[in-house]
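pls design
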């Protein structure tokens, strides 16, 4: 997500600089400062919209998520040598919840792939029912015998502090039955129709 925001910021700075230079040379000062205010407000709004679109864009469009309930992520470095860790939580719409409850796993197995989305998002194609199976790199706790999302998000030694309520919610969704999940190219998506919630976890 950081890369997309950086591109947007650089573009906005470049465009703003051109407009400011032109306005400073040609307009009276009162109009100049009005334009500066409008440009700043518009830039901030554009960045917020871009950020939300990138966050929502991590989930297959067939799930129709729009409301972001929680987002916490951090990056260390850039490019191939960089690392990321994060959790995103979304609200499911009533219509999608009803459809998932009616169709079960077949909803996900027949879910259309949106070619306009990023390749990373399109990689969530193999869906299963919960509880999530342990993997070579994500094993159940010896004490509690459940999978802990912290062990997944922080698998590479780079970690974030997650709200305790979100940790409890995500751990329930991972370990209880009745939900659906998929490992993609980067990250894990868990969908809970009973909780009307989608959780996206990633590390890398």
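designed seq:
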């Amino acid at each position: 997500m950081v890369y997309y925001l950086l591109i947007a910021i650089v573009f906005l700075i470049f465009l703003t600089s051109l407009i400011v230079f032109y306005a400073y040379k040609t307009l009276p000062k009162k109009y100049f400062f009005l334009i500066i205010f409008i440009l700043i407000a518009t830039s901030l709004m554009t960045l917020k919209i871009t950020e939300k679109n990138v966050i929502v864009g991590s989930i297959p469009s067939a799930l129709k998520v729009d409301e972001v309930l929680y987002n916490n992520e951090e990056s260390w470095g850039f490019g191939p040598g960089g690392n990321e860790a994060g959790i995103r939580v979304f609200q499911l719409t009533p219509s999608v919840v009803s459809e998932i409850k009616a169709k079960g796993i077949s909803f996900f197995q027949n879910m259309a792939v949106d070619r306009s989305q990023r390749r990373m998002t399109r990689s969530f194609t193999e869906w299963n029912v919960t509880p999530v199976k342990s993997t070579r790199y994500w094993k159940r706790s010896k004490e509690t015998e459940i999978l802990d999302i912290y062990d997944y998000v922080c698998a590479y030694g780079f970690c974030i502090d997650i709200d305790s309520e979100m940790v409890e919610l995500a751990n329930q969704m991972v370990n209880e039955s009745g939900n659906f999940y998929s490992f993609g190219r980067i990250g894990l998506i868990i969908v809970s129709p009973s909780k009307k919630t989608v959780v996206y976890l990633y590390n890398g």
